Amino acid sequence: MHWRPLPYLVALLFTIFILTLHMLPNMDSMLNENNTRISHGFLKSQIDYHQEIAPFARRPMTSYLIERSMDLFGFRPGHGFILINFTLLFLSGCLLFRLSKILKSTNRQAIANQCVYYASFSVLFAFFPPVFSYDEPLQYCFLLLAFSAFMQRRWVWYVPFFTLALVSRETSLLLIPGLLLHATLSNGNLSTVFSKQNWKTWLFIVLPIAFYGLYLFAFIYVFDQLEATRTEMASRYSCFIENFENLTNTVESWTSLYLALAPYLYLSIMYLKNYDSRLPQNKWVYSFLLTVAINSPIVIFTAFARETRLFALPLLFIWPIFAQVFWREVKLLTHVNLYQGILAKWILLLPFIGVNLINYWFCFHFYSDLGLGPNTYFSEYLFVMNFGISLHFLLFQVSKRIHIPSTTSSF
């Protein structure tokens, strides 16, 4: 695991795999629209849309990079879109590895974190409708750079990187309460929470907001976007009505939230319930939970909840420490004697079987019959995710009844 190119190779292989998945002829992605060829017309409309509509026009960097690649290489719109976004997807995986190492992960743990990142629903299916990723790969790159600078207290780098993350997508703002919580918990001494040093740290954490505010004011003034911004803000709450206006939209909205966060919320709850609450990495879990509590209602009330990527933002606090924090929980799935224990206490299998019969019905009948996730692997992903969560819970219950070897070994 100490072969230096390995993390770059892992990032490259996952990036190629995700691109291949999006280009399969039976897949309905933004890139090919159920075809074997790149949908240049649709991707051109997406680029134009993000330049003309007020809330997207103030996030110009991804569109700028796509257009510059088109000018430089003579690319068509689809080629420019794929080059920029998949290069950024590759770079984000490399930056995640770097941040994991800063957080004292081993090479194995850091590479495992990369795998979890790329296997997350909102990344694996990033450019499928209704996920519709556009600025997220660039936003993630800047946020991972900002988080790295934050952990090293290199404020001269943190402030510009987080400001650029805000320009990429203003939703980056919702991560700042988590960073403030992390910084406060890092002190570890309630008597000095309001010390001069802490005030200085908090000031640096929120400083990018001021710079982004200046950018936003200049953008609205220069491009005369005040009225368009007012109209956009006034129309935001209509999203809530659309999210739940009928059964299909309601199921799609709640399933979107579930697909983005369910395994991470489950593991976080199991971890905090069963292990030492004073461990240093817990700060990241608490920051994740706080950001979920802030971000999820905002998405539900002011955005289209079917766009799963919007719920995934808090995962920036989990991806860099996943293997460090959750390895003991994941390792539970590998204990052979637990499966033997299930056979010995077969009565425990009955609720497990019942849950997964419902899981199968929901994923492959109810969900698909509503017309959700056609020509994708959404149903299969949801089924496997539910099966994994229910299996882990079953094994955890068995582990409380029989002795198992210690799961505290490092990964």
UniProtKB/TrEMBL annotation:
The keyword Transcription does not apply. Keywords: Membrane, Transmembrane, Transmembrane helix. It comes from the Bacteria. The chain crosses the membrane at residues 7-24, 80-99, 111-132, 155-181, 202-223, 254-272, 284-305, 311-330, 342-361, 381-398. The keyword Membrane applies. This is Mannosyltransferase related to Gpi18. The lineage of its organism: Bacteria, Pseudomonadati, Bacteroidota, Flavobacteriia, Flavobacteriales.
